[in-house]
Structures are given as structure tokens and as C-alpha cells.
Task: inverse folding
């Protein structure tokens, strides 16, 4: 079984609720986004269009980040989820430069959201992302183990994100001509976008 | 803490462009080249300086870059596809075989076959040390400029040019350095470096996406001055111009060669710094 995510670009309104919920769920540090909505303006006035592109780890079939990891801290599990074991990560950042989707972030030391003094929530959550290691989206693996959907999927106000088994969703992806980002690199992402 | 630019556009990589990281890579290149040329010219003190500084300085910089030195040992765990692991093992082997070479050279020089065999083995490992991080860069598929298969040739030539240049610079302090074969080898290395750099940049300029963006940064953007003055000017143009002087029938004082050597070392650092900083991610769409 391989998990995948489908993002309907027609439904996404670019509200950023997914990114906010992701931060709340995973307690990432300021400036660190496991999930984010990227923006681009296409065309020239008066024919201008704004594109909202929700981005997260693509959980590739052939993840470049796994091959370059010198310690095996980055690995792909049986469900196709690419994870980082912080206790094994040496912070070499080879995986960060290997990822063509800029989906990984090196944890640098810094203040919390309320200055140097961390709130109780930050103290608990920041311990899960130690400084000097690399952090990334896990499709909310702890939630999946409890039978829940990833936080970004649950919170999406427009139902733009669909999560499930790839074999169950592949029919819809093919029917609606879903595509993956930077497919020319041969990474075979498991995050699909519907035009 | 870093902040994200959430626009879909080119972005320069920042993870491998710190001063420590660039210095570590550039220093490794220069020291590895110097080690090889010291052995080739029979200047054992130069080889010893290069050997110790390669292991100590590069090793220390690597540990400082990782933040927690104890974690460095973990890179020996998985000798799979990772060039970082291969580099760590190469460095360890270089340390062991190099130490055996110096032990044999200074303690039992009469064992010439053994000394020569260890010298050749340590030279091969030094060549590996000079180029392995270019393979690490090639593995960084997010950064298109580094995906050029000519990178090992470029940084190998840079190691040869700057390593022989470092020895030429040391000739001002150590008269034992044999300038005669060294200057000729240096000229060849600089020529190969110029050709490799031209080839990599030409491919980058013709390419699309992040590679082209990187070429723009090097030729016209914020890194242009450092790249043109340092990597091209001091690292290639000055040495090539000076190499032409003896061909025109003029002789140069030893100090001039030492200055040229120093220029090449600066050029190698400028090349590495600008290439690391110019690495750009392509827009995802």
C-alpha cells in the first residue's frame, strides 16, 4: 500500500489554513513550513491570474533525499512515507540540497513565536525537531496511525486535498489528468495535482 | 531562523553556502592537490604539511559545520549511495595510509618499494579527497548547476592548479621546492581548469531553469565580481599570462612564481565559494 495526496488546484483558494494547521499539529519553529501555499502571478495586466500551489513533501517513489543520506536517517517506509529519524540525522543537509521541491528545512537555533521564552506547547513540540537536524512533512504519520487524516487534509476549507491509498485514487487522477511536479526528474512523486 | 519566500520563483540554496562549508571544501581541494604535487616533486615537508592540514583543518571544519562533533561518527555507518559516507571513509583511509607512508619514509627509507607503493596509494586517495565533494554536489538534484557531470573534472583541475600553486607560493619560504617541473605542470592544470570552467558555464548558459539562473548569477548577478575577479582573474588569467612569459624568452624571479601560486589558491577559494553560492533551485512549476 502506498499513500498519496491529490490536490485539486481548482478548489484551492490559497487561504493557507493547511499551512497554519500543519504548524499547529506539528509545532514547527518560526519560519519552518512542512506544508505551505506558494504563489505566482501569471500574465500581464489586465490579464493576470494568480496561482496558489500547496506544497509539501512529495513522498517520491524514487526519493533523491534517501540515497544521499549518509546515516540512513532518511528512509521510506512500507507505506511510501519518507521520514527523518532525528536521532540518526547528523545535519549534513545533503537531503535538503537533493530535494528539488525544497520540502526540507534544516532546524536552526532561534527564538520561539513569543521571543526567547518558549511557551509550554513550544517546549514540548520543539523537542521533537531538535536543532541541527532536518525536518519535513510525514503525511502526519502519528495521525495516520490513529486512523485520522493528515491535518492539512482535515482542515482544508475547500476540500481541495484528498488523501488515501494510491490504488484507490489513481482512477480519479487519470480521469482528471492529474500531474506531478517536476516529473522530468524521475522522482515519481506521490502528491498529484488536478488541473 | 530562516523565513520562506512563498513566491514560486528561483531561489538560491543556502544550506551549503556557509563560509565554513565553502572553506572546508576549498581547503580540501587545495590541500589534496598540494599533497599530490609535493610527493611528485619529492618535497616531503610539503606533503606532510598538506597531509596534516587536510586531515585536521578539513576534519575540524566539517565537525564545526555539523554542530555536534559526536554525530560525525555516524556517517561511517552507511557506505551505500551516499558520497558523504564515501568521502568520510576515503578521509579515514587517507589518514591511515598517509600516516603509514610518512612512517615508512622517515623511519625506514631504505624500503623504497614500500615507500613508493604507500606514496602512490596515498596520492590516489588524495585525488579522491579532491573530487569526492563534487560527486556529493552532483547528487544534489535540487540544485541544477551542480548536476553537471563535468564538475569532478573542474574541481579536480582546480585541485591540481591550486595545489601546485600552493607549493609555488611555499617556494618563497622553502628553497627545496623544485620550481622547474612544478611550473610546467601548473600551466597544464590551469589550462585544463580554464577549459573545464568554460565547458561547465557554456552548458549552464544554454540550459534552462536553475542552471541558467546560476550562470546568470555568476556572469551578471551578485556573484559576478567575485567570480570574474577571483575565480577567473586570479585563478586562471593571471597564471596563464605569467606562464607565457618564459615562452617569450624572459625569465621570472622565484618570487613572481610564489605570487602567482598565491593567486591560484585565492582563485580556487573564489571558484568554490561562488559555485556553492550560485546553486539555485528551479521553480517547481
Result:
Amino acid at each position: 500500500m502506498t499513500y498519496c495526496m491529490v490536490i485539486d488546484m481548482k478548489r484551492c483558494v490559497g487561504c493557507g489554513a493547511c499551512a497554519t494547521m500543519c504548524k499547529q499539529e506539528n509545532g514547527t519553529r518560526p519560519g519552518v513550513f512542512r506544508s505551505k501555499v506558494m504563489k505566482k502571478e501569471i500574465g500581464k495586466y489586465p490579464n493576470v491570474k494568480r496561482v496558489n500551489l500547496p506544497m509539501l513533501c512529495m513522498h517520491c517513489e524514487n526519493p533523491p533525499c534517501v540515497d544521499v543520506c549518509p546515516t540512513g536517517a532518511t528512509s521510506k517506509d512500507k507505506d511510501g512515507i519518507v521520514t527523518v529519524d532525528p536521532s540518526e540525522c547528523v545535519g549534513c543537509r545533503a537531503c535538503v540540497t537533493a530535494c528539488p521541491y525544497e520540502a526540507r528545512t534544516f532546524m536552526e537555533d532561534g527564538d520561539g513565536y513569543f521571543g526567547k521564552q518558549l511557551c509550554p506547547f513550544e517546549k514540548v513540540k520543539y523537542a521533537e525537531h531538535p536543532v541541527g537536524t532536518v525536518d519535513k512533512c510525514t503525511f502526519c504519520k502519528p495521525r495516520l496511525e490513529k486512523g485520522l487524516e493528515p491535518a492539512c487534509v482535515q482542515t482544508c476549507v475547500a476540500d481541495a486535498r484528498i488523501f488515501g491509498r494510491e490504488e484507490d485514487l489513481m482512477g480519479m487522477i487519470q480521469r482528471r489528468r492529474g500531474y506531478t511536479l517536476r516529473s522530468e526528474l524521475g522522482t515519481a512523486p506521490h502528491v498529484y495535482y488536478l488541473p | 531562523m530562516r523565513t520562506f519566500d512563498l513566491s514560486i520563483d528561483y531561489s538560491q540554496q543556502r544550506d551549503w553556502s556557509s563560509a565554513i562549508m565553502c572553506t572546508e571544501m576549498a581547503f580540501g581541494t587545495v590541500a589534496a592537490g598540494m599533497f599530490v604535487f609535493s610527493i611528485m616533486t619529492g618535497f616531503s615537508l610539503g606533503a606532510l604539511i598538506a597531509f596534516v592540514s587536510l586531515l585536521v583543518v578539513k576534519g575540524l571544519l566539517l565537525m564545526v559545520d555539523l554542530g555536534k562533533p559526536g554525530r560525525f561518527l555516524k556517517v561511517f555507518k552507511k557506505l551505500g549511495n551516499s558520497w558523504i559516507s564515501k568521502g568520510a571513509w576515503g578521509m579515514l583511509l587517507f589518514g591511515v595510509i598517509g600516516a603509514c607512508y610518512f612512517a615508512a619514509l622517515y623511519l625506514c627509507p631504505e624500503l623504497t618499494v614500500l615507500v613508493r607503493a604507500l606514496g602512490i596509494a596515498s596520492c590516489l586517495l588524495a585525488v579522491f579527497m579532491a573530487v569526492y565533494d563534487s560527486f556529493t554536489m552532483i547528487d544534489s538534484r535540487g540544485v541544477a548547476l551542480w548536476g553537471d557531470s563535468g564538475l569532478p573534472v573542474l574541481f579536480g583541475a582546480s585541485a591540481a592548479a591550486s595545489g601546485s600553486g600552493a607549493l609555488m607560493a611555499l617556494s618563497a619560504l622553502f628553497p627545496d621546492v623544485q620550481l622547474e617541473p612544478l611550473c610546467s605542470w601548473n600551466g597544464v592544470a590551469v589550462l585544463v581548469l580554464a577549459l573545464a570552467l568554460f565547458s561547465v558555464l557554456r552548458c549552464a548558459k544554454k540550459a534552462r531553469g536553475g542552471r541558467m539562473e546560476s550562470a546568470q548569477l555568476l556572469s551578471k548577478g551578485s556573484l559576478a565580481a567575485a567570480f570574474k575577479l577571483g575565480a577567473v582573474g586570479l585563478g586562471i588569467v593571471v597564471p596563464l599570462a605569467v606562464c607565457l612569459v618564459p615562452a617569450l624568452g624572459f625569465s621570472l624571479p622565484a618570487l613572481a612564481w610564489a605570487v602567482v601560486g598565491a593567486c591560484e589558491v585565492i582563485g580556487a577559494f573564489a571558484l568554490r565559494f561562488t559555485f556553492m553560492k550560485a546553486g539555485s533551485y528551479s521553480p517547481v512549476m
Summary: Chain B has a mean pLDDT of 91. Chain B touches chain A at residues 1-4, 6-9, 11, 13, 15-16, 66-68, 71-72, 74-75, 77-78, 80-85, 88, 136, 139-143, 146, 279, 281-285 (CB under 8 Å). The CA atoms of residues 35 and 47 of chain B lie 5 Å apart. DSSP finds nine helices and two strands in chain B.
